[in-house]
Design a protein that fits this description.
The chain starts with a strand and ends with a strand. It is globular and about 40 Å long. By secondary structure, the chain is mainly beta. The protein has strands at about 5, 10, 20-25, 30-40, 45-50, 55-60, 65-70, 75-80, 90-100, 105, 110-115. Strands 2, 4, 5, 6, 9, 10 and 11 form a seven-stranded mixed β-sheet that branches.
Length: about 120
């Protein structure tokens, strides 16, 4: 079992920045793909960014050039740095862990609101 604890959401003005953090309960990053998803009201959950054990990254077109996913293997933590935030980025953001040996784990969700 893997527990993921998120932090860092909040309210920010358009153009501002936030950093989300996701700490895993044990060392699994070397054997997992980590990702951030988001779900806006009335919409399906969508992939925002992911990072493999080999540090290959993938981003949704809507966030390319603005968001950066990274991780600290020593701290078992994955980050999502969000710059140039727009109102359409408003959503609940979820950390996700997919171990290569199976399973699919989610964080508790962090509200990100972009509004003036």
């Amino acid at each position: 079992q893997v527990q993921l604890v998120e932090s860092g959401g909040g309210l920010v003005q358009p153009g501002g920045s936030l950093r989300l953090s996701c700490a895993a309960s044990r060392s699994i990053f070397s054997r997992s793909t980590m990702g951030w998803y988001r779900q806006a009201p009335g919409k399906q959950r969508e992939l925002v960014a992911s990072i493999t054990s080999g540090d290959s990254t993938n981003y949704a077109d809507s966030v390319k050039g603005r968001f950066t996913i990274s991780r600290d293997k020593a701290e078992n933590t994955v980050y999502l740095q969000m710059n140039g935030l727009k109102p359409e980025d408003t959503a609940v953001y979820y950390c996700n862990c997919k171990p290569y040996l199976g399973g699919n784990y989610w964080g508790q969700g962090s509200q990100v609101t972009v509004s003036s």
